[in-house]
């Protein structure tokens, strides 16, 4: 790691008057950053007196400032020949050597400087940097530790030692150093990013994501923080969150290395193969000669059943890198799909030849042999693989498949069981073992395996299907109704799921039980967050605030800590505010912001503070919203209200102008303000704003809906219902439900 040293021109001592004058003129020029002129003056001084260590030292400094480090090193060396105990000359010479990558000589000179000034923290710091650059991380850590003895409150030293600890592989110590640095300088964004990287290395993905989020709060334009947070989310299996972050990184810096490739992989993992293919195409355009891009794109094309396209990509990948056994393994699989069984076998042979100790190579060849009906060869290859590593869950799985194909179901079940013993989360092993147990009439064992599969993969529809098809499955589980209620939530159009749940209910004596709609699903499975949130939002839009509150309460009993829960707290806080429970609203919105800061949450909290007349606090929240999203028109409009309350008329006018500038339309701004004014008990002001909005867009049904709500607040029921009906006529999605509620 290079660190540039700012060179200091020291006070002059006197020599012969002419030499002193040249040195003084040189320093004057250097202080004015006229380094070439300074060099000329110092050279004149040296010509008059080539024994002046000061002249050589100052000229070296000037050379360093124009990055002519070799000339600087030569002058420092000359100064040291004249003055061997010149500590600063050793120090600056060492830094110049570091700047040209001559780290070993730099370390030697730092040694000499430190011998002369053993209590100079900077010398230890820069020697530590040089040691880091030659990967002597232990030596660097020792130097940074020594420096901290003389500069205990130096954030940079903790940061540098943390980086060295990280590079050495001592991630726990690195985290401790970053903790110390953050305590000293809590607003330095990159410290959180460094700490996040160390947390990833100890598999603390949750902690890493929190740190990357803090980094982005401090520096919203840090593309790398989005990129690495996406990687952490991928490692947690949150591929959707990862894709969102990769896209944000691309919006800031589309040139990040592997960005398109990683985005494509995440999309593929979340099942969006078409989206993944689009990003792999971008990656291929960016890295036309990168074999891995074509290799990974072939996997997506395989998932899309474009086997010819996959084969073309694998051919290209192998042409670019013919020593990668994985490419041959994958091409073997594609050739199997294209019924080129012999070609698949030849590719698998090549994979084994390239890496005779690769489990995957033997597994690939075993699959090719299976297609050629060489079952004995399959078992032989997989037995070799297991002998290489008897902890290979995949080898046992595929050998189990071979035994299954031979009709030896008990041997297959034994291998599946071993695979599960090695990997307790191996979904395919549970699936295949359950199928085979069902075939040998071990229905209880089959149900147990399918339930475990559902526990591991609760959105796999095939797992629910397999469970339901086990004869009399309800005899072996008490969870049939709950499981198939969840299945209906996953796919309400699948009639088999209704059948299976009906069967379970009938077995329990509930002959009338049936699923009619999402309400019934939520009633039977209150843990489905997405359904609860959706229904809660729908109820809120229909002004059924108590119903919405009940749904958000239920959802938060299931999940009160994840990023998703921030949305739940945010919406519950909004409902509580509408119900005038401002204390509860603030508590919920505080919780939402603490979990995941969003501009919308800050706006909602600012609105509540307006309602309780904490106008300064409201301004702060709206400022926070605008920090996160400078184009949030609602935040500008609402802060204008707060500033008006504080008597800042000009500020209010300017902010409202900004709202109109960034907002989609003026009508939207006035409609939104109307909703805010209703909460602030200014219903007449809300009506005035709606009237303005209607004058701007007379056919906007949502404006009439909002005006009707304001009129209803003033007990003008007849006029309110007229507005609701007008809103329905103009196509407002929520108006019919509101009218049904208020205009009976």
UniProtKB/TrEMBL annotation:
State the SMART domains in the record: TPR (SM00028)
Pfam family for this entry, one: TPR_2
Superkingdom assignment: Bacteria
Q: Record's SUPFAM superfamilies? A: TPR-like
Keyword annotations of the record: Repeat, Signal, TPR repeat
Q: Using the record, list the residue span of the signal peptide; answer none if the entry has no such feature.
A: 1-16
| Repeat positions for TPR | 19-52, 53-86, 87-120, 155-188, 189-222, 223-256, 393-426, 427-460, 599-632, 667-700
PANTHER family with a match to the protein in the record: TETRATRICOPEPTIDE REPEAT PROTEIN 6, UDP-N-ACETYLGLUCOSAMINE--PEPTIDE N-ACETYLGLUCOSAMINYLTRANSFERASE SPINDLY-RELATED
Q: What is this protein called?
A: Tetratricopeptide (TPR) repeat protein
């Amino acid at each position: 790691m290079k660190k540039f040293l700012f060179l200091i021109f020291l006070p002059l001592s006197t020599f012969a008057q002419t030499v002193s004058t040249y040195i003084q003129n040189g320093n004057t020029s250097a202080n004015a950053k006229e380094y070439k002129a300074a060099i000329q003056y110092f050279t004149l001084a040296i010509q008059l007196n080539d024994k002046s260590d000061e002249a050589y030292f100052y000229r070296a400094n000037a050379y360093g400032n124009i990055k002519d480090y070799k000339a600087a090193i030569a002058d420092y060396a000359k100064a040291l020949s004249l003055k061997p105990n010149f500590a600063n000359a050793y120090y600056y010479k060492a830094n110049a050597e570091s700047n040209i990558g001559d780290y070993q000589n730099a370390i030697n000179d730092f040694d000499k400087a430190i011998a002369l000034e053993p209590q100079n923290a900077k010398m230890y710091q820069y020697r530590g940097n040089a040691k880091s650059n030659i990967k002597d991380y232990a030596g660097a850590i020792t130097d940074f530790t020594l420096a901290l003895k003389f500069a205990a409150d130096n954030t940079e030293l903790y940061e540098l030692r943390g980086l060295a600890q990280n590079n050495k592989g001592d991630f726990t110590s690195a985290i401790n150093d970053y903790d110390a640095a953050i305590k000293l300088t809590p607003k330095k964004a990159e410290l959180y990013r460094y700490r996040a990287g160390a947390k990833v290395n100890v598999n603390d993905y949750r902690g890493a994501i929190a740190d990357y989020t803090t980094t982005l709060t401090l520096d919203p334009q840090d593309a790398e923080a989005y990129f690495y947070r996406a990687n952490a989310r991928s490692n947690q299996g949150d591929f959707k969150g990862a894709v969102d972050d990769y896209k944000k990184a691309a919006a800031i810096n589309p040139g990040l290395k592997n960005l398109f490739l990683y985005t494509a992989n995440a999309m593929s993992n979340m099942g969006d193969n078409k989206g993944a293919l689009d990003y792999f195409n971008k990656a291929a355009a960016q890295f036309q000669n990168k074999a891995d891009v074509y290799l990974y794109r072939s996997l997506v094309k395989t998932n899309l059943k474009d086997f010819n396209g996959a084969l073309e990509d694998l051919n290209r990948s192998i042409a670019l890198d013919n020593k990668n056994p994985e490419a041959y393994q994958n091409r073997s699989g594609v050739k199997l799909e294209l019924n080129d069984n012999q070609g698949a076998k030849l590719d698998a042979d090549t994979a084994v030849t390239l890496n005779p100790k690769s489990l995957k190579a033997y597994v690939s060849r075993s699959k090719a042999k299976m297609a050629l009906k060489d079952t004995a060869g399959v078992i032989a290859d997989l037995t070799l693989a297991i002998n290489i590593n008897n902890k290979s869950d995949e080898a046992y799985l595929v050998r189990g498949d071979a035994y299954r194909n031979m009709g030896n179901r008990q041997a297959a079940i034994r291998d599946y069981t071993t695979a599960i013993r090695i990997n307790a989360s191996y979904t395919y092993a549970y699936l295949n073992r359950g199928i085979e147990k069902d075939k040998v009439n071990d229905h209880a064992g089959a149900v147990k395996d399918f339930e475990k599969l559902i526990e591991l993969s609760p959105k796999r529809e095939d797992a629910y299907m397999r469970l339901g098809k086990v004869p009399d499955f309800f005899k072996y589980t008490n969870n049939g109704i709950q499981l198939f209620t969840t299945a209906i939530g996953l796919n309400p159009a699948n009639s088999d799921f209704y059948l299976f749940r009906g069967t379970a209910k009938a077995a329990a004596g509930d002959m009338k039980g049936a699923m009619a709609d999402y309400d019934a699903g939520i009633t039977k499975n209150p843990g489905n967050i997405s359904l609860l949130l959706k229904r809660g939002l729908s109820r809120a839009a229909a002004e059924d605030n108590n119903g919405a509150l009940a749904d958000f309460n239920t959802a938060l009993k299931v999940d009160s800590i994840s990023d998703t829960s921030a949305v739940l707290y945010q919406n519950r806080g909004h409902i509580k505010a509408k119900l005038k429970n401002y204390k509860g609203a603030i508590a919920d919105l505080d919780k939402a912001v603490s979990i995941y800061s969003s501009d919308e949450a800050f706006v909602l909290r600012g609105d509540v503070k307006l309602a309780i007349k904490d106008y300064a606090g409201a301004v702060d929240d709206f400022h926070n919203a605008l920090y996160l999203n400078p184009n949030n028109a609602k935040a500008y409009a609402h802060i204008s209200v707060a500033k008006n309350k504080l008597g800042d008329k000009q500020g209010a006018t300017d902010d409202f102008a900004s709202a109109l500038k960034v907002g989609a339309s003026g009508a939207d701004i006035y409609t939104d303000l109307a909703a805010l004014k209703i909460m602030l008990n200014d219903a007449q002001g809300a009506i005035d704003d709606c009237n303005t909005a209607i004058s701007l867009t007379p056919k906007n049904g949502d404006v009439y809906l909002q005006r009707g709500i304001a009129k209803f607040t003033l007990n003008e029921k007849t006029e309110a219902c007229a507005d609701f009906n007008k809103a329905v006529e103009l196509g407002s999605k929520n108006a019919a439900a509101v009218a049904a509620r208020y205009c009976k």
